[in-house]
Specification:
Radius of gyration: 21 Å
Number of strands: 10
Order of helices and strands: HEEEEEEEEEE
Largest sheet: 6 strands, antiparallel
Strand order of the largest sheet: 1-10-9-4-3-2
CATH superfamily: Rieske [2Fe-2S] iron-sulphur domain
Shape: globular
CATH topology: Rieske Iron-sulfur Protein
Distance between the termini: 55 Å
Number of domains: 1
Strand content: 25-35%
Length: 149
């Protein structure tokens, strides 16, 4: 009888140990916000970085905390909300381009995100950054508040 009770207690202890290691995939979502379409003339000097693959520009007057625009190639641009996806309602939950220019990072929670897709690559964030719809026609890039992820 004692052997069965010991096995049951051991099983329960192991089960609790493994369930305690599960990531906590709960926190507040990034709030929704609408803004008027932002039209960027890529020929203007302030957008010169967006003329090269891998170039980026921060646009501060749209979104919740601004938007990071990243050029994948001449026909594909990404527009990421700068509001971090981990505890987005905290005051410092803001994503910036890392000094290496290779990824994005929230220096408050130390979450990192890929520039190509906005997916979390490190830290406590488990959701991707919010991505807004972009459309390129000729030398004009339009960013809308339509969320695509």
């Amino acid at each position: 009888m004692k052997s069965i009770r010991t096995k049951i207690l051991l099983f329960l202890a192991l089960a609790l140990q493994f369930t305690g290691c599960e990531p906590q995939l709960t926190d507040d979502p990034i709030p929704l916000v609408t803004f008027t379409d932002q039209v960027l003339n890529l020929g203007f000097p302030e957008y010169s970085a967006l003329r090269l693959d891998g170039g980026f520009k921060m646009i501060n007057n749209i979104g919740i905390r601004g938007v990071i625009v990243y050029r994948v190639n001449s026909t594909t641009f990404r527009a990421y909300e700068r509001n971090c996806s981990y505890h987005p309602n905290e005051a410092g939950a803001t994503v910036n381009i890392h000094s290496s220019n290779l990824f994005m990072q929230d220096f408050t929670c130390n979450s990192t995100f890929s520039l190509e897709e906005g997916q979390p690559t490190g830290g406590p964030a488990w959701r991707p950054l919010r991505q807004y719809h972009t459309d390129v026609i000729g030398g004009t890039l339009t960013i809308t508040s339509d969320v695509i992820n």
